[in-house]
Amino acid sequence: MDPNAKKTALRMIPYGLYVLTAATRDGKVAAGTVNWVTQASFEPPLVVVGVKTDSGAHALIKESKAFALNVLGKGQGPMAFTFFKPAEKKGDTISGEPFRAGSTGAPILTSTPAFVECTLEDTIEKGDHSIFVGRVVDAGVSKQPEGRADDATLWLKDLGDKMFYGG
User: Fold this and answer.
1) Alpha helix ranges (H) inside 12-113
2) DSSP 54
């Protein structure tokens, strides 16, 4: 297989950007930018997310059995980059972003246009990422988007070549 062709073909799959958050009962918090997310079922409502096995969020999701996907909106590229680094909780902020605890305890970032909160239904551990299947237990939209809902979402391509080439 041509590695460059593989890379190009995989990059043609459109990806939205999300900040994945999780918290434990004793107050540990993890947050990180993710893009391997999809809806898996309408009934019951299920989403799946790919999470790197060596990330802080991976361990917290397995422990807490819950997570939230905070949808990043157009213009929130700087926030995506903020959460490429390990998250730091200070008071009611994570890496400087305000949050509130969701119904499962997972942090909900209050400055994002939408969130989906999930309980962990299943885990598939293969390769350097695990697939977490989450049952949607709560969701919210901070402002109804104009037009198509996905037009309000920050897409991986919106970050430009910085994401892939470090520029």
Assistant:
1) 56-64, 77-82
2) T
Nearest to 65 by CA among 14, 117, 17: 117
Q: CA-based angle 16:98:75, to the nearest 5?
A: 35
- Evaluate if pTM is beyond 0.85: yes
Cα angle 123, 129, 55 (rounded to 5 degrees) comes to 100
Q: What are phi and psi of 80, to 5 degrees?
A: -60, -45
- Among 54, 72, 67, smallest CA distance to 16 is for 72
Question: Comparing C-alpha atoms, which of 113, 112, 114, 99 is closest to residue 30?
Answer: 99
Name the β-bridge partners of 103: none
Structure confidence by residue, pLDDT tens digits, 32-75? 999 999 999 999 999 999 999 999 999 999 999 999 999 999 99
SS3 assignment, position 143: coil
Give the DSSP H or E segment for 142.
none
pLDDT-derived band at 161, boundaries 50, 70, 90: low
The pLDDT tens digits of the residues spanning 134-155 come to 999 999 998 787 888 777 888 8
109 with 116: CB under 8 angstroms? no
